[in-house]
Amino acid sequence: MYNSNKVIPGIIIFVLIVTFPIWLNHGKAVSAPKPILPEGRCVESKEFMRANHMQLLKEWRVLAIREGMRIYTSSDGSRFWIGLQNGCMKCHHNKQQFCDKCHDFASVKPYCWNCHIPPETKEFGTAKATRLLKLFRIPVDLREGAKPKHGEHGGHGEIDKGGEH
Amino acid sequence: MNVVAALIAVIGMVILVWLGVGVLKLYTLFGVVIPYAAFLTFLIGLVYRMVNWAKSPVPFKITTTCGQQKSLPWIRHSRLESPATNFEVFLRMALEVLAFRSLFRNLRADLRGRKLYYGSSKWLWLGAILFHWSFFIILVRHLRLFSYPVPGPIDLLDKVDSFFHIGLPHLYLTDVAILAGLTFLLLRRLVDAKVNYISHASDYFPLFLIFGLVISGMLMRYFFRVDITSVKELTMGLVTLHPKVPTGIGLIFYVHVFFISVLVAYFPFSKLVHMVGVFFSPTRNLPNDNRRVRHINPWWENVPPKFLTYCEWQEKFKEQLESAGQPIDEDCYKEKKES
């Protein structure tokens, strides 16, 4: 072989790039997500919803917001109220345990939550006591009795939690 | 005829998948065995081609140049058009691979009446760059199905590509671009009589195959949806080397996978191998330094050639030269006498 000082590194780089997904995931056992499904039936079949829910939601958005049509007639003739929070999330009320499971797995970031507020985070947590807020002596907790639900908001949340007990 | 043969081959593949998956239910064969076999063929085939090329000697330094070569220090040389060092070769190669510089010089020749006209034609370059870059970005974007958690840059690429939020799932710009590029590249072969004349089935086949690949992928994303979670379960099984075949993925997914498997397996045996071949082109990967560095023909390593000086050559053919009345260089004999 000629120019093996260049060709061999080239071949190694080629093989590394081509097999990148294999060594990136080496030794991982990735199992499919198992979203928690509520009892009862959905507006369409499970198979249809798994594959097409985003297109149905878009159709619903157009019907509800642009045409003012709030009744959806499913393929088997039953009628449902069109809405994300007052429709879907009446049954699928847990975003983390339902929506996020598959979306995280497939790396999909739907923009539903740019406008909608998922039910369990309806109560706003307290803002972080940043340096800037402290500097201008702005109180962090302006609302009476507002407490973060999950204690996810840094150190301040923990103090609040302590007060709760 | 060439077009029809290539088209039939691609349509035949769809029928094959329909029979194999739709009728005979060979999910493991089409979802695991064929993709693995195709990937191994691709990897081993291309490495074999590279080793084979590297074993071929380059007897002469045949750099293609179209600029002033490096000579005297006060004459400015063209660094890209006539690279003098390895670094300049690297620069030229990088621009060739990333921007298709040589294709940018593409000319067209047309008869207008009885006169032959030559003119600049950038369309081929545009079609090629649209096609190749879109294909590359689409390929990188597919890593979101082959990694968990998905690396940030892949996510970012996805966001940029679906920037305009057209439809849902969002339309990827590269999907539009690759269709435009492919359409141009195909029409060029069909419409232009000169290109049509030199096109073989092996030119049409990859085009139709990639068309099929792109169209099946787009149909799957925008129209006949399949469950992406099950798809990722399958693809993650492939890359973690624990293959499993989840049930309930639509037939179109298997068509898509079969197309990519065939494309990848076909790679080392076809013109598509220019992907690695470009790096082994002696006209592009050698610096134009013939006047400074002597290029030793690699054939000489084992069998050194016997060189003749002019005097030795004259001695060999002296009779023929004299009988033809050619002048004899007397200096050869003088030097011999002196030494």
Rg calculated over all Cα atoms of chain A:
25 Å
Percent of residues in beta strands of chain A = under 5%
Main sheet properties of chain A: 2 strands, antiparallel
Strand composition percent of chain B:
under 5%
As a whole number of angstroms, the C-alpha radius of gyration of chain B is 28 Å
- Total number of β-strand segments of chain A? 2
What class do helices, strands and sheet pairing of chain B give? mainly alpha
Largest sheet of chain B: 2 strands, antiparallel
Order of helices and strands of chain B: HHHEEHHHHHHHHHHH
CATH class of the largest domain in chain B: Mainly Alpha
Q: Separation of termini of chain B?
A: 74 Å
- Please list the strands of the largest sheet of chain B in the order they lie side by side: 1-2
Report on the structure:
The complex is a heterodimer of chains A (165) and B (339). Chain A has seven helices and two strands. Chain A is mainly alpha-helical and 165 residues long. Among the domains of chain A are: 74 residues, no CATH class; 34 residues, no CATH class. Chain A is extended. Chain A starts with a helix and ends with a helix. The C terminus of chain A is likely disordered. Chain B is mainly alpha-helical. In chain B, strands 1-2 form a two-stranded antiparallel sheet. The mean pLDDT of chain B is 92.
TL;DR of this structure?
The complex is a heterodimer of chains A (165) and B (339). Chain A has helices at residues 4-18, 20-24, 46-66, 84-91, 99-105, 131-135, 154-164, and strands at residues 71-73, 79-81.
Present the secondary structure layout.
The complex is a heterodimer of chains A (165) and B (339).
Chain A: H1 4-18, H2 20-24, H3 46-66, E1 71-73, E2 79-81, H4 84-91, H5 99-105, H6 131-135, H7 154-164
Antiparallel strand pairs in A: 1-2
Chain B: H1 2-23, H2 27-55, H3 86-99, E1 107-112, E2 115-120, H4 123-141, H5 152-161, H6 173-191, H7 193-197, H8 201-223, H9 228-239, H10 251-266, H11 274-277, H12 310-316, H13 318-323, H14 331-338
Antiparallel strand pairs in B: 1-2
Keywords (chain A): Membrane, Transmembrane, Transmembrane helix
Transmembrane segments (chain A): 7-24
Region (Disordered) (chain A): 145-165
